[in-house]
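Exercise 7.
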Amino acid sequence: MSAAARQRVAVVTGGAGGIGASIAESLGREGWYVVTLDPMVTLDGTEQLAELEDSTVARIVAAGGSGRASNASVTDAVAVRVLFEELVSERGGLDAVVNVAGITRQSYFARGTEEDWVVLLNVHLGGWLNVLEAALPLMAEAGHGRILGVTSGSGWRAADAGGYSAAKRAVAALTWQLGRTAPAGVTINALSPIANTRMVQAALERARAEGRAGGGGGLSLDAIPGPENLGPLAAYLVSDEAGWCSGQVDQPHLVEVVRTDGVGSLPAVLESVVPRAFVTAEAKQATEGGANPRFGSIFDAVSPAGSEAGPVSGDVRTCAVVSERAELTPALVSALEARSIACHKVEPAARNFHGAARALHAAAQVAGPIDAVVVALAGNPAGPSAPTAWQGVLADRRGLIEHLHADAAWSRAASDYAADSDHAVRLVTLTDATPPAGPSRAQAAAQIARVAADATRGQVTALAVGIESASADAAEQTGELVGHLLGHPDSSAGLAGAELVVGPGWIGLRAHPRPIGTVVYGGPAVPGWVDGALREIVRAPAEAS
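Solution. The predicted structure, written as C-alpha cells, is:
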C-alpha cells in the first residue's frame, strides 16, 4: 500500500526526550503514526530510568495523534531490524526514520577512558549504521522513504570531543556518500542541531568544571533555542516537499591538487608546491588560484643524483612505522631514510589503547627518543561487488568502528608517549579510503587530527592522509608525501589537522566541512519560503512551477 493511501509511519530514535521528543510530537501533529525508540537511560547511558507517565507517545495521543513506544536501543541491530520489519507488516510501510539517539561522556584526544571512546562510537556511529542497514532495504523495495540523522558541530569544527567527534564526522561522511547514491525515492540527510537540552547542559557544565574554553566555547544557554524549535524543521526534512534534498551536509572539497605522475622529481614537486600552495590554502580554507603559473616548470625538473629528497631540514631523526600495508611499508621506509630519518618498525597488531601504548614505549626503549609515528593500518579486504553503491557501503560497514577504535588507540599512544617523555611527536595517520566505507574512516581520522596540537599543548602535531588510489604508484606517492611532511617542519606545522589526499596520479588538499549558508526565521514553525531558500543555498534545481 502506498504512503498516500495510508497513515504515514515514522520511527524517532531517542524520542523519549529533548530534540527527539520534539520531532516525534511535530510528526504526530502532522498525522504520522510515530514510534519512539528509546531505552530510557541516563545521559551517559549507564543507568536505567523509570518509565515516564507523561511520555512522548502519551502526549502525542492526548493531542489526537497515534503511535507507540519501544524501549530498544539503536545499538541492538537485531531489535532495530525486527521493529522496522514489524511496522512494514503491521502498518503497511516505513516512511521515515529520524535517528536522534545519543549519549554524552568525557572523551578527548589525550584524555578519557577507552571504554568511553568505544561506547560513544557504538551509540553515535554504530546506531546510525544499524538504522541505515535496517531501513534502506525496506525503503528501496517500497520506492520511497526518508532517513534523517544527527551530526554535530563537534564533527566538523576543531572540537576536542574524542570518540563523539570522530563518530559525528563519520555520520556526516556516510550521509554525504549514501545521500548521493540512495535508492530511487529515498533521501538521506542529517541535522547538525544546537538546542538547550540536557546533553548540552551536561557538556557545558563539564567544560566549566574543567576550565575549558570559557565553559563551552562562549555558548550561553540563554542564547540557545529550546528543542521545541527543531521539531518542525525535522518534520519538513522528512516530508515529500523536501524530497529533492539528499546528502546535503556540506562535504569537504578539494582546494589544491598537484600532479604526481610522470614528473621528473616527485620530491622536488612536493617541495615546491606543498609549503607554498597547500599550507596557504589550509590557512585560508581556499585556494589563491596561483599555483599553475608559479609552478608550471617544476614537473620537468630533475634533481641531481642522490639529492632528490634533500637533507632533512627539521628535527625529525627517528620514526616509528606502524604498518599493516605490505605494499606501503617499503615506500615509507625508503622515502624517510632518503631524508636521513631512521625508521623503526613497530608491531601493528595492537587494537586497544593499552596495547598500542605498550608497543610504542617498547620501540622507544630500543630506538631511543621517537620524533615521529606513522600509522598505516589495513582496511577491510575487498569483498564481492555489491549490486548498487549504497549496498556496497553498507556491506563494507563491517569493522568500521573497530578500525576507528584502532586508529584512536595509536593516536592516544603517541599522545601518551609525548606526555610521558616530554618529547614532541609528529603523528601521521594513513587511511585506506578505497573501500566503500573507507572515506568515512578517513574523514574521522582527519577530525581526530585537527585537535591534537591544542589538546596536547603542542606536544603532538597530527596529520591525516586518505589514500584514495589503488594504482601502482600510490605507495610511492604516499611515501614521498610522508617524507616531505616529516622532513619539512613548515609543512607539517602548516598542515596539522589538514585533510590530505593521495589520488590516482595526484596529491590534494581538502577544505574542512563548514556551514555554507544560514536561514534565520525565529521558529518553531517553518515558513513556506524556507524550501526555496535552501534550494538556492545548496544549488539545487528550483521547483518546477
